[in-house]
């Protein structure tokens, strides 16, 4: 039986990739909006996902005409970590659209 992961109260700055329509796995996002997940939060299973290191987003949404990127604030983050800097939380605020040069600069 998998142990329940403890959620932290803090919010961390993260980076997220999207498709050309600002969707990720069918969920529609908008710049300037905050979203809250109801229910359990688990890495790669449920909740909102984003990366702490800006360039890790390319592993999920490669550079090109079909990808969009944003700086986000991830709240209710669990202690779980993925093979890169992918994290999961119970809320996400989409702060600002970022170009590839801005992602590189943030790295």
Outline:
The protein has 107 residues and is mainly beta. Helix content is 7%, strand content 38%.
Report the helical percentage.
under 10%
Strand order of the largest sheet: 1-6-8-4
Rg, Cα atoms, Å? 13 Å
Distance N to C terminus: 37 Å
Sheet with most strands: 4 strands, antiparallel
β-strand number: 8
Question: Could you characterize the architecture of this molecule?
Answer:
It is globular, with a radius of gyration of 13 Å. β2 (23-24) and β3 form a beta hairpin. It has 107 residues and is mainly beta. Helix content is 7%, strand content 38%. The strands form 3 sheets. It has a 4-stranded antiparallel β-sheet. Strands 2-3 form a two-stranded antiparallel sheet. The chain has one helix at 100-106; strands at residues 11-19, 23-24, 27-28, 34-36, 48-51, 67-75, 86-89, 91-98. The model has no long low-confidence stretch (mean pLDDT 91).
Task: Describe the protein's topology.
Elements: E1 11-19, E2 23-24, E3 27-28, E4 34-36, E5 48-51, E6 67-75, E7 86-89, E8 91-98, H1 100-106
Defining traits:
107 residues, mainly beta, 4-stranded antiparallel beta sheet, two-stranded antiparallel sheet, 1 helix, 8 strands, 38% strand, globular
């Amino acid at each position: 039986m998998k142990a329940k992961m403890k959620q932290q109260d803090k919010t961390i700055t993260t980076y997220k990739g999207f498709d050309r329509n600002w969707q990720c796995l069918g969920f529609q996002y908008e710049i300037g909006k905050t979203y809250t997940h109801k229910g359990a939060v688990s890495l790669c299973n449920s909740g909102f996902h984003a990366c702490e290191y800006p360039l890790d987003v390319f592993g999920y949404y490669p550079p090109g005409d079909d990808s969009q990127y944003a700086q986000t604030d991830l709240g209710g983050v669990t202690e779980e970590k993925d093979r890169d800097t992918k994290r999961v939380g119970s809320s996400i605020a989409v702060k600002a659209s970022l170009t590839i040069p801005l992602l590189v600069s943030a790295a």
